[in-house]
Amino acid sequence: MRILVNEEPRDIATATLAGLLDELGYGDARVATAVNGAFVPAARRGSLTLDEGARVEILAPMQGG
Amino acid sequence: MLFYGAELSSRLMLGTAQYPSPEILADSVRAAQAGVVTVSLRRESIGSRAGQAFWSLIRDLGVPVLPNTAGCHTVKEAVTTAHMAREVFETDWIKLEVIGESDTLQPDMFALVEAARILSEDGFKVFPYMTEDLVGAERLMRAGCQVLMPWGAPIGSGKGLNNVFGLRALRAHFPDVPLVVDAGIGLPSHAAQAMELGYDAVLINTAVAQAGDPARMAMAFRLAVEAGLIARAADPMEQRDMAVPSTPVLGRAVLA
What we know:
The complex is a heterodimer of chains A (about 60) and B (about 260).
Chain A: E1 2-5, E2 8-11, H1 17-23, E3 32-35, E4 38-40, E5 55-63
Parallel strand pairs in A: 1-5
Antiparallel strand pairs in A: 1-2, 3-4, 3-5
Chain B: E1 2-3, E2 6-7, E3 12-15, H1 22-32, E4 36-43, H2 50-61, E5 65-67, H3 75-89, E6 93-96, E7 99-101, E8 106-107, H4 109-121, E9 125-130, H5 134-142, E10 149-150, H6 164-173, E11 180-182, H7 188-196, E12 201-204, H8 206-209, H9 214-233
Parallel strand pairs in B: 3-4, 3-12, 4-5, 6-9, 9-10, 11-12
Antiparallel strand pairs in B: 1-2, 7-8
Helix pairs in contact in B: 1-2, 1-9, 3-4, 4-5, 7-9
């Protein structure tokens, strides 16, 4: 299945958002996620299934003003 | 002065962006004795652990964090970013930025009020980055904000307090609301001026991060903020248009 992760096309084997984070090697990294523009809390990542063409955003802590 | 019920250890809020290195950032936060540091959320390349290293550095500094929604241009973007920030940084504080104009990074006050209302209803403690507009300030208060953060000048411009009259009016209209000058401050003297006007805190980033010696500049800002705060409490004299001799006139010799 092909989806977009931070606007980059990516073929993935998993069906869930939690599976995607594992597949990409995020492990226990502190990140926040959104799918198709909507926030997905960490607790819902395991049950959220990704559809073909889903737009996933994975954001990490960063410097800010 | 309490910010959503919290007493800050200092009135200097410091941004964490644009420092030459993580070490210099840490040195600057310590030299500033910052009461709050601002942070954000961004994409990072897969496999990079830069975000995790940054977060670990910030946690070790032990300073309360204020996440921002920098770069958001719509209510939806800002609200979604705020939710993501609340989860990652484990705080319900949010520096709400909704940018309306790209050249000046001027806040979109209409979208700001709407986003502030949605977030306040959802339990966020909103620190709105705003213009010094009095009516906008009133609307933000009604939307649930208990802190206001007017700009001094456009973000990163270093021009200081562009509209002293407007900032003074805001202070006068909202005597009991914590007010923070956010953005545009370039020099410690600008920060001191904001505090002398009765502002409760200032938020600085570029002026420290882009100085030749950021940690030393951070110390200068700490001293300026403290000086301004004490000066305000000491009740400054009124300005006069004409000179008034300070040395007593009485007893002056006649030598002509």
